[in-house]
């Protein structure tokens, strides 16, 4: 396993730097402003994953909720167009009404 890796935070400017502690290189001053580094935090190491527990019960699929069916919507009946005879009768009635007015 390698050397520990830590995150160092500058006291003055708040810059964060990754600090690797090896035999030849130790930096305890900020590269941006030269202030001493503090607040060293160890990097989290990935924990080994645990195997899943074995279930000795048979697998039963979950029941799904019944879906609500929307009621059937009937289409509105189309409005019937006035026949040519009806329009002619209306025009005649209007004309007779105009004569009496």
Q: How much helicity do the residues have?
A: 10-25%
Structural class: alpha+beta
Rounded average pLDDT: 76
- Residue stretches low in confidence (pLDDT < 50, at least 5 long) are none
Overall number of strands: 3
**Fraction of residues in β-strands:** 15-25%
Largest sheet: 3 strands, antiparallel
Oligomeric state as shown: single chain
Order of helices and strands: EEEH
Q: Based on CA inertia axes, which overall geometry fits?
A: elongated
State the end-to-end distance. Answer: 111 Å
What is the count of helical runs?
1
The value of Rg in angstroms is 43 Å
- The main sheet orders its strands as 2-1-3
Structure description:
The chain has 101 residues and is of the alpha+beta class. It has one helix at 84-100, and strands at 5-10, 16-20, 37-42. Helices cover 17% and strands 17% of the residues. The chain contains 1 helix and 3 strands, in the order βββα. A hairpin with a 5-residue loop joins strand 1 and strand 2. The mean pLDDT is 76. It has a domain at 5-42. It has a 3-stranded antiparallel beta sheet with strand order 2-1-3, with no helix packed on it. It is elongated and about 115 Å long. Residues 44-81 are annotated as: Disordered.
Please describe the topology of this protein:
Layout: E1 5-10, E2 16-20, E3 37-42, H1 84-100
Antiparallel strand pairs: 1-2, 1-3
Describe the structure using short key phrases.
three-stranded antiparallel beta sheet; elongated; alpha+beta; 17% helix; 101 residues
